[in-house]
Design a protein that fits this description.
Length: about 325
């Protein structure tokens, strides 16, 4: 069947004008926090010699993915709060779908890799640097990207070949699989099952692996000293918080056939905006090494600017 749709109309988070104005300033603030916080994390890790372990390498990669991931949906969402009609072209919609799933799935895999890194560091500390060398860490990052690409390629190919008919209203604030399947002019049962298996099972299986990893880690704490137990627990608590905030909404959205609920839009905000915003706060506030490194780096920069200003000769 021929595709008669050249653009889609996004319904957005709300149709209420007052709510839209409030959300415009709120999500603009959220996006500024996302960009600032994650850039601070990346710069702090790159500039701090004591944050050179694999855990911080993966954390800087997570921050980079969060910046890209939120930038796929948040700017369009913010602009649309001021628009009367929230249009997006067919090609733009498919591109957004591609990058949402590429970066979202890559984040799932990097969180899984970070759990494995913590497992090796806590359960096999003597072999940690041997196992998690820089070559192996780089390979893991490449596999995260490849896994995300394979996932999004399947999702996008399944969706782009569907015929769409009017009305072309997407009851969401970005292009995603389930809302688009709802607009298709053909039977999407099989496509919905494949999409569920592709997205939902990746989310669920990764979540099970993560829960298993952190359970093993928590059980191993009894063999550690009190100080080591406290440090390891503080680090793992940060990771577990991020995992819950990210995976629970993803499982709710994707581990079901091609059906949509009114709550889906608000749930999606958690993994597209809230989690990328909270990640820098969680990892910096719960991690003493990151907090100290940030203080040293930014105090040094401020003092350096002050000293430079004092030694400049008057004009």
């Amino acid at each position: 069947m021929e595709n008669n749709v050249t653009e889609f109309i996004l319904m957005g988070l709300s149709q209420n004008k007052e709510v839209q104005q409030l959300c415009f300033f709120l999500f603009l603030l959220f996006y500024m926090i996302i960009m600032t916080g994650n850039f601070f994390i990346i710069i702090t890790i790159q500039r701090s010699s004591n944050l050179n372990s694999p855990m911080y390498f993966f954390l800087s990669f997570l921050s980079f993915v969060d910046i890209c991931y939120s930038s796929v949906t948040a700017p369009k969402l913010i602009i649309d709060f001021q628009a009367k009609v929230k249009r997006i072209s067919f090609d733009g919609c498919m591109v957004q779908l591609f990058f949402v799933h590429l970066l979202g799935c890559t984040e799932i895999f990097i969180l899984t890799v970070m759990a494995y890194d913590r497992y090796v560091a806590i359960c096999k500390p003597l072999r940690y640097l041997t196992i998690m060398d820089w070559k192996f860490c780089s390979i893991l990052v490449v596999f995260c990207w490849l896994g995300g690409f394979v996932h999004t390629f399947i999702q996008t190919v399944l969706t782009v070949q569907l015929p769409f008919c009017v009305p072309n209203l997407i009851d969401h604030y970005f292009c995603d699989v389930h809302p688009l399947l709802k607009l298709a002019c053909t039977d999407t049962y099989v496509v919905g099952l494949i999409a569920m298996a592709n997205s939902g099972m990746i989310s669920l299986s990764s979540f099970v692996i993560l829960v298993g990893s952190y359970t093993v880690i928590l059980l191993s704490f009894k063999t550690h000293s009190s100080e080591g137990r406290h440090k390891a627990l503080s680090t793992c608590a940060s990771h577990i918080t991020v995992v819950i905030l990210y995976f629970v909404p993803c499982i709710f959205i994707y581990l079901r056939p091609s059906t949509t609920f009114p709550e889906d839009k608000m749930v999606a905000v958690f993994y597209t905006v809230i989690t990328p915003m909270l990640n820098p706060l969680i990892y910096s506030l719960r991690n003493t090494e990151v907090k100290n490194a940030m203080k040293r780096l930014w105090i040094k920069r401020l003092l350096g600017r002050t000293t430079w200003g004092l030694i400049q000769p008057p004009l």
